[in-house]
Amino acid sequence: MSPELEKCSRSLLVCEKSNFTKEKSRYDIHVSKHYFNYKVSIVIPECASLPASIAGVINSFNSYYRVRDLPIYKLLEEEFLEKVVKKGQFYALSYNTRIDEDNTIAFLPSGQLILSVDKDTYEQLGLEGKPSQYKHRKVLRYVVTIDLTDKLMSPGAKRYQRLITSLKEWVPIKCDLMISSKMTAAEEDGGVLQNLLSQYSFEEHRPTLHTHTLKEMPCPSLHSTDRHGDEKSCDPHHFLEWLGAVSMDISSDNEASSFLSTYVCPDPQSLMSHGLLCTVTGFLIPEDIYSLLLELRRYFDEPKFTSWLSMTVHGFVDSPVSWGTTEHGFLKSGENFYNFVCFRNQDYWLHMATGSHDGCPP
Amino acid sequence: METDVKSKLPSEHADVLGVQSQGTKQAELFTSSFLKRSLPHARGSLDDQLLRKAVVLEYNNPKKVKAKRKKAKGLNARERRELKVFQIKPEHHRYSLFLPLHELWKQYIRDLCNGLKPESNPQTIQQKFLKADLHGAVLTVVRSRCPTYVGSTGILVQEMKHVFKIITKEDKLKVIPKRNSVFSVEIDGFVSHIYGSKFELRSSERSAKKFKARGTIDL
């Protein structure tokens, strides 16, 4: 086969089945490594309204700030670096920048700064970086990864000075940022962040919550012991398709008279009288999502009509990383999401999906 | 006629003159050698030259002995490298030593451009710059395909065909290749960017080179 044909765009889906109570299950690592999350959508069949406990957890989600035109070197100044960035749990992502066109900046909670820049900016920046993995003939994109917790990057060192000079004088990068920092009241660092933000125009946002009740629609009946390829069980692709149709409010009746959608509910199915679709959008951090997942596991402590519920977490389409430091790009779509299906007996199914310009999910 | 010349002198005349005439053969040899020496260019045989020609016999061309002049060949590259003519010794690696050179260069450029006024047309300055000598200018690397070169600043000490040698404020001699880099030269508020890839010529050859106008240049 000719080499051009071999390199066609592909999307990946990784499926995992395990139990929450097993020690070896790595669901918590998968959740915590997916740093930048945009939307969480929960589908609970046979549920009329959002349970109070889940609503309570969602209300306690961390609020995030959106700053306009913040010069990046301000976040690398000595005081801010020591007190906020290096303490961990500092997330920042540039807003309104496209990953395949503009310069994108991300601060990871592990103390790393990722700059995904185009060729001209890279040549002027003067910082060492690697060419992007997703290139065609010429390299048009470079990724600069800087470990701020490194000893060589401590304030006063030559490399730190060069980084500051580069971002201050040679290429002053300014962008809109979304910042989320889980600072507890006990730590005084919050003051530093507020000080910095008050010099620029910023807004504080809370994650928005939408609830929608689904009425009288077929839904697949899933059993935790279903095996892939079994005739009776539901294929992950079809299940995820149905989930997507439900969250987009697309009818999956497949009537002969309707030309809009041919999505169908996968077999085996049962009719549910009502169901709940709940969506939370915003700049969500993995810690909050983990607490939501724990709360959803506790949903089955009381007997319920349904045997399963599903939670889908979508990542930012324009984020430079997907899981951990795996590089993420945008070809036809920049999807990177994962989906939990939790069962009554604490079993779970985990599906992780990525688009074409992305590494394989862990 | 020849026989008359070569014939013997009559004995009476020989006694009066005090000359002894030689024999026929000796006389022949003597005559031919005398004629050869006297004639300006001895081309071909003597008979052709002398037949029906008048020759001035006193015209004697002293043959100059040319002293053999040795041409100065010049050193080739290997000898130059051995003699280290172009190397600057480490004790001379001091920024302060080259500051007077920089002042000289500024003067030279100002004279070249007839005094750099703020109203001067950048185009004319650019044309002059292309032919100017840059030794002593303060160069800064603004863009480069290799990120570590970006930001190097210093006074240009030597310009070779492919490389700039600059001395930085920290008294370091840096060698920066011209290819795939953009340098900036600043004088009196005029900043010029030099695309090194197009500048890979010896400074002496650059004054004769015609540069094409290009829209944009990608590194």
Summarize the structure.
The complex is a heterodimer of chains A (362) and B (219). By secondary structure, chain A is of the alpha+beta class.
Could you state the oligomeric state of the chains shown? heterodimer
Poorly predicted runs of chain B are: none
Major β-sheet annotation of chain A: 8 strands, antiparallel
Q: Give the overall pLDDT of chain B as a whole number.
A: 78
Number of helices of chain A: 9
Question: What would you report as the Rg of chain A, rounded to the nearest angstrom?
Answer: 22 Å
How much helical structure, as a percent, in the residues of chain A? Answer: 10-25%
Quantity of strands of chain A, as a count? 15
Organism (chain A): Clupea harengus
Pfam family, one (chain A): Ribonuc_P_40
GO molecular function (chain A): ribonuclease MRP activity; ribonuclease P activity
Protein name (chain A): Ribonuclease P protein subunit p40 isoform X1
Report what the structure shows.
The complex is a heterodimer of chains A (362) and B (219). Chain A has 362 residues and is of the alpha+beta class. Chain A is built from nine helices and 15 strands. Chain A has an eight-stranded antiparallel beta sheet. Chain A has a seven-stranded antiparallel beta sheet with strand order 1-15-14-13-2-12-11, sandwiched between helices. In chain A, α2 packs antiparallel against α9. Chain A is globular. Chain A starts with a helix and ends in an 8-residue tail after the last strand. Chain B has 219 residues and is of the alpha+beta class. Chain B has helices at residues 2-6, 11-17, 24-38, 46-50, 77-83, 95-112, 122-131, 203-206, and strands spanning 138-144, 153-159, 163-167, 173-177, 181-187, 190-195. A six-stranded antiparallel beta sheet of chain B has the order 4-3-2-1-5-6, covered by helices on one side. Classes of the chains: A alpha+beta (362), B alpha+beta (219).
